[in-house]
Amino acid sequence: MSAILETHLPLPLARRGKVRDVYDLDEHHLFVATDRISAFDVVLSPGVPDKGAVLTQISNFWFRRFGHVENHLIETEFDRFPAAVRAHPELRGRSVIVKRCSVVPIECVARGYLVGSGWSEYKNSGTVCGIELPKGLTVASKLPAPIFTPATKEESGHDVNISFERMSEIIGADLAGQLRDLTLTLYSEAANYARSRGIIIADTKFEFGLYQGRIVWIDEALTPDSSRFWPADQYAVGSNPPSFDKQFVRDWLETTGWDKTPPAPELPREVIERTREKYLEAYRQLTGSELRF
Question: What is the pLDDT of residues 256-284, one digit of tens each?
Fold first, then answer.
């Protein structure tokens, strides 16, 4: 098993997120997916080996597949990176050079199935993020059509669901409409492809930025961290299928009595190994190939 990757590069650090580090490279950014894993908005220890590489390469796969949509990628081939980056070979396969974009402060979420917080709201009100849905649905029901449910981007704590009208007030009606339509189109096309590979994408979130006045797809793309992936052969309406993401970690944490405030319990080796395999399995099934560095 590979070593767990953390980054402490001799480059200006622009931003350190829960799982990604962003470094300044003059007019561009170096985007590094570490092996950190978070749950319930807390970074856990230790990380999951190869997780950063899986997230990076799944994202690159989707960005290439939807090449007609402008994305943030400048360079993905490590051997063509600047010498200062190539001096750190541990970054191979888990880092990309990207455009400096002005980030739109909205999480663009598409939901195709009734699950998670959406199911909780529907049980109480018959709606998801204020959108009225047909009566008689149950957990894991496929929605009549995918819905767009934006959320604010919060630096700490949970993102907050908002209405499309509130999104329009924050960023403007024209941009909000374009991002809604783009989100639903990307989700529908990706979900159709994934279904042909035996994976159901129940929901996903996209992030977008502006670059020289144009909308650009940024951050990660349809990964197990930003999406809910279900094995199609285990899907059944009325039950929450096992997923390809960190749900295995969440389930273990729920057995520990942890109150979801830092510090979190240390993850046991068997949980880390099983989680790593779920990420690798998602990559293999979606792309049809083995992860390479």
Answer: 999 999 999 999 999 999 999 999 999 99
> What is the secondary structure of 185-231 as a DSSP string?
HHHHHHHHHHHHTTEEEEEEEEEEEEETTEEEEES--S-TTTEEEEE
180-191: pLDDT as tens digits: 999 999 999 999
The CA distance from 17 to 287, in Å, is 27
Both 119 and 60 in a single domain? no
**In whole angstroms, what is the distance from residue 86 CA to residue 11 CA?**
12
Determine the Cα–Cα distance for residues 246 and 272; give it in Å rounded to an integer: 10
Pick the closest to residue 58 from 279, 248, 246 (CA basis): 279
Distance CA 156, CA 143 (A): 31
Instruction: Please give the structure tokens belonging to residue 214.
Output: 């144009």
Answer whether residue 157 shows pLDDT above 80.
no
CATH number of the CATH domain containing 209 = 3.30.470.20
What does pTM read for this prediction?
0.93
Q: Mark whether 33 and 128 lie in a shared domain.
A: no
